[in-house]
């Protein structure tokens, strides 16, 4: 079988630890080029993963290399531009989260993929975790009855500890990132809960704020470092979502779903990635997999899923359309925080 020619735009930590190694491990992929505005970062990735073509201009790379597929792992403000240009050059695209910085950009990405007849997938890797997939099966089976409430959290010490441009990382600058912890971590959990519950969020009330993080010069960063959101689903279930960059020395990437006949706890126990607690007192423990952390990188499955979609001509389950729905919730949370009002999410 002819290998898919893959290029990566953006050579930061996520490419170093996940996208590039996963591409190299896939037998159906030839990693043909890497690109970063910081040419030193691109050269470092190329050397580490034995990639022959190195660029600091993705438009030039796309025209000269003409890859079959592209991973976009740039700072957030470039997601839409790089994705749209790659699609227009005839490549399928896997774009990192958050999908883009405005709803209009998200729509343009979706429309361009349709226009070009190419796949657009968003790298919401938490949908691929084994315990999350198992939990969705349990919820859909009706074994625990109707979902009533939930709480989901993603927090760690902040990107300045692992970003490739630390300590004054682009994650802290609004012109490059647009969002802070909410766009970096909260977006993962919004997408995960949409996946697990199988329904959309229709209302939110949110606090999105900056409590602690500072630039190296001591000035407060101009993006959020904490968010706490209340979310309501179409069926009336309500729950909380927390995203934080201020959990020093620890990480929390857990979810609890409360149903009529019991609860499901995900990735809160170091050994058991899923625990079901039944209303009658019985418990079921599942040792399925472990959650990835910045310190402990495991295979996310995102690149494999993307490549498999292309090879089998199967539209991605984590599509651009799905990414847009998730981003609608993110934008609604920011609007609620700004206005101090409950915001209805219009689909």
TrEMBL record:
Ranges where the GFO/IDH/MocA-like oxidoreductase domain occurs: 133-264
Top-rank taxon: Bacteria
Residues in Gfo/Idh/MocA-like oxidoreductase N-terminal domain copies: 5-124
Pfam families on file: GFO_IDH_MocA, GFO_IDH_MocA_C3
UniProt xrefs under InterPro entries: Gfo/Idh/MocA-like_OxRdtase_N (IPR000683), Gfo/Idh/MocA_Oxidoreductase (IPR052515), GFO_IDH_MocA-like_dom (IPR055170), Glc-Fru_OxRdtase_bac (IPR008354), NAD(P)-bd_dom_sf (IPR036291)
Protein's UniProt name: Predicted dehydrogenase
């Amino acid at each position: 079988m002819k290998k898919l020619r893959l290029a990566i735009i953006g050579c930061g930590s996520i490419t170093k630890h996940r996208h590039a190694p996963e591409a190299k491990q896939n037998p159906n992929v030839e990693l043909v080029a890497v690109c970063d505005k910081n040419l030193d970062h691109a050269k470092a990735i190329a050397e580490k993963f034995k990639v022959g073509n190195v660029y600091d201009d993705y438009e030039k790379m796309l025209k000269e290399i003409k890859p079959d597929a592209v991973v976009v792992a740039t700072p957030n403000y470039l997601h839409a531009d790089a994705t749209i240009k790659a699609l227009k050059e005839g490549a399928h695209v896997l774009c990192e989260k958050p999908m883009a910085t405005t709803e209009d950009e998200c729509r343009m990405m979706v429309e361009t993929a349709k226009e070009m007849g190419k796949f657009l997938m968003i790298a919401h890797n938490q949908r691929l975790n084994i315990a999350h997939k198992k939990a969705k099966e349990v919820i859909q089976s009706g074994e625990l009855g109707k979902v009533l409430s939930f709480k989901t959290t993603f927090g760690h010490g902040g990107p300045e500890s692992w970003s490739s441009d630390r300590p004054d990382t682009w994650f802290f600058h609004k012109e490059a990132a647009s969002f802070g912890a909410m766009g970096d971590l909260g977006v993962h959990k919004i997408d995960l809960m949409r996946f697990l519950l199988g329904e959309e969020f229709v209302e939110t009330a949110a606090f999105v704020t900056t409590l602690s993080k500072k630039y190296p010069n001591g000035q407060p960063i101009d993006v959020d470092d904490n968010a706490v959101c209340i979310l309501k689903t179409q069926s009336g279930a309500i729950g909380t979502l927390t995203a934080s960059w201020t959990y020093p020395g620890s990480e929390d990437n857990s979810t609890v779903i409360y149903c009529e006949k019991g609860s499901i706890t995900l990735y809160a126990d170091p050994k058991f990635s899923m625990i079901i607690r039944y209303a009658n007192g019985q418990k079921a423990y599942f040792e399925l997999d472990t959650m990835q952390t910045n310190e402990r990188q495991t295979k996310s499955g995102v690149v494999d899923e993307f490549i498999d979609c292309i090879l089998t001509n199967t539209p991605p389950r984590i599509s651009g359309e799905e990414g847009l729905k998730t981003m609608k919730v993110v934008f609604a949370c920011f609007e609620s925080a700004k206005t101090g009002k409950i915001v209805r999410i219009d689909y």
